[in-house]
Design brief:
The protein has a two-stranded antiparallel ribbon with strand order 1-2. The chain is an all-alpha fold and about 575 residues long. The two termini are about 45 Å apart. It comes from Musa troglodytarum. One of its GO terms (biological process) is response to oxidative stress.
Length: about 575
């Protein structure tokens, strides 16, 4: 069996066990207190009061970003960024970290369930994306599409564009049930649907994106609103343009979003003519061609034809790797940083010494400390089986680092691809370029400035120390000799890092959440409770406090109008 398939089946098995566990616990809860639990289950789809435009654009414009970047237009991409900034100013308190404390396992539950679902029924990825779109296009992304009809309203399920065609309700129910067991009364169905749609796209080889969370569920729904807002399969081109314009989207946006039809199936009753007419279809194609201008060699779509399974292979391997060894997410991020900081992101750090050069692996900052080479080797071997002689190790390392961060609760980002691998490496270049643990503040600022990064950039990037572990040899001097370290923290660290010996003993860089990518490192830095040496200056202190106060946290991201629970 191929390694990536084995890892996929392993994760699928974990998800099935989770479902079985959920079923057993749910029965036990219902036997203990049927009234309470049925009320809990009944309010799946309650509590949402957020305006429609920001929630709608927040998720849908991310798909547009992907389509534009695939086509390669700098102009279109910049316009999209402007549109997204307009949304960001009105999105209020939505944040990817909204549940980081109240339900830290949320995205893992969604991901595991979606992996099993898409493995058994690949079409479901498209169905959930469509369900999400049909939810957002009516009154915003508020899960109103999930509501059954009641005595007081007729919902959206049986509206013309939805009746007998929307699918995926049972998947959302399954996820919600599992989430309620672990985080009762916390997560909205609107957020679950947004995450499930994202994961469905990613599992089918599409992009992943960071989902802003904190939506509230609708308590009512309107069939007439769905009928009047959702574009029907018989809509003319002018009707389609008008429908999207009402949501703040132009014809180019509409054309890009139509690319979601690359997955899924259509019923016989909706023939190709539903796209409006031959004339309209040709016009749409022309609009799409306007987007297809070049933005240079690197592109997220670089391997879309030559190796379409690349990102799926990387993601599956990384998911299994981080599940078995969470520290590896941090190790691969460090490996990527140490690669890029020398001669660019060219995978030169992966090269072994040869008769003609001494490589970077044994440079001072790298020797006996860099990890993750075997993970890149594993991914590369599988990619070679699927797409021989196509994908560079530099691109694989960039994707693996991104996925490692995301799997530990951090952000995801779009990776431009098309790098070429180095054929040589230089140990001296690594020694002279990479900052060492002993570097002082001016040396660090100079090293980052040489790469076009200022002190604020450097401060933000240092937040990567929120994950991973450090060796005793790298922080011994700090905990024994420096004055700017919390005495209790130093004493705690000294128990595992003696003044002599034990050089390879490990300690987490973030004492509070060592396997979660968050902003706790900055808070610990201010409290002088970090293993890395603290280079103090009033400027750096201000920047550190800025990072600490502006990075997403549950306290900062919660809306002023709290949920009843």
């Amino acid at each position: 069996m191929k390694p990536w398939l084995a890892s996929g089946l392993l994760m699928s098995g974990s998800a099935l066990l989770l479902r079985l566990h959920v079923t057993v616990k749910l029965r036990a809860i219902m036997e203990l207190d049927s009234a309470c639990s049925s009320e809990q289950l009944a309010c799946h789809y309650k509590y949402r009061s957020i305006s429609s435009l920001p929630s709608h654009l927040d998720s849908i414009l991310r798909l547009y970003t992907y389509s534009v970047a695939m086509a390669g237009s700098v102009e279109s991409f910049l316009k999209l960024c402007c549109l997204f900034c307009l949304v960001a100013t009105s999105s209020g308190q939505l944040s990817p970290a909204f549940y980081s404390r109240t339900c830290p396992t949320l995205q893992t539950i969604v991901s595991l369930t979606m992996r099993t679902t898409v493995l058994l029924d690949p079409r479901m990825g498209a169905s959930l994306l469509r369900l999400f779109f049909h939810d957002c296009f009516v009154n915003g992304c508020d899960a109103s599409v999930l509501l059954d009809d009641t005595a007081t309203f007729t919902g959206e399920k049986n509206a013309g564009p939805n009746a007998n065609s929307l699918r995926g309700f049972d998947v959302i129910d399954t996820i919600k049930t599992a989430v309620e067991l672990l985080c009762p009364g916390t997560v909205s169905c609107a957020d679950i649907l947004a995450l499930a749609a994202r994961d469905g796209v990613a599992l089918l080889g599409g992009p992943s994106w960071t989902v802003a969370l904190g939506r509230r569920d609708a308590t009512t729904a309107s069939q007439s609103a769905a009928n009047s807002n959702l574009p029907g399969p018989g809509s003319s081109l002018s009707q389609l343009i008008a429908a999207f314009a009402a949501k703040g989207l132009n014809a180019r946006d509409m054309t890009a979003l139509s690319g979601a039809h690359t997955i899924g199936q259509a019923r016989c009753t909706y023939p190709v003519a539903m796209a409006v007419s031959v004339e309209s279809f040709v016009k749409l194609c022309c609009l799409f061609c306007l987007v297809a201008t070049s933005r240079g060699q690197l592109s997220p779509a670089f391997y879309s034809r030559s190796c379409p399974t690349l990102q799926t292979i990387v993601r599956q391997t990384m998911r299994t790797t981080v599940l078995l060894d969470p520290r590896m997410g941090a190790s691969l991020l460090r490996l990527f940083f140490h690669d890029c900081f020398v001669n660019g992101c060219d995978a030169s750090v992966l090269l072994d010494d040869t008769a003609t050069f001494n490589g970077e692996k044994n440079a001072g900052p790298n020797a006996n400390s860099l990890r993750g080479f075997e993970v890149i080797d594993t991914i590369k071997a599988e990619v070679e089986l699927q797409c021989p002689g196509t994908v560079s190790c530099a691109d694989i390392l960039a994707l693996a680092a991104r996925d490692g961060v995301a799997l530990l609760g951090g952000p995801s980002w779009r990776v431009p691809l098309g790098r070429r691998d180095a054929t040589t490496a230089s140990q001296s270049a690594a020694n002279s370029n990479l900052p060492s643990p002993a570097s002082n503040l001016s040396q660090l600022i100079a090293a980052f400035a040489a790469k076009g990064l200022n002190a604020r950039d450097m401060t933000a990037l240092s937040g990567a120390h929120t994950i991973g572990q450090a060796r005793c040899v790298s922080f011994r001097s700090h905990i024994y000799n420096d004055a700017n370290v919390d005495a209790g923290f130093a004493s705690q660290r000294q128990r595992n890092c003696p003044s002599s010996g034990g050089d390879n003993n490990l300690a987490p860089l973030d004492v509070q959440t060592p396997n979660t990518f968050d902003n706790t490192y900055f808070r610990n830095l201010i409290a002088l409770r970090v293993s890395t040496r603290i280079r103090s200056s009033s400027t750096m202190e201000r920047r550190t406090r800025w990072c600490s106060s502006t990075a997403p946290t549950p306290e900062l991201s919660r809306p002023t109008s709290r949920r009843p629970w």
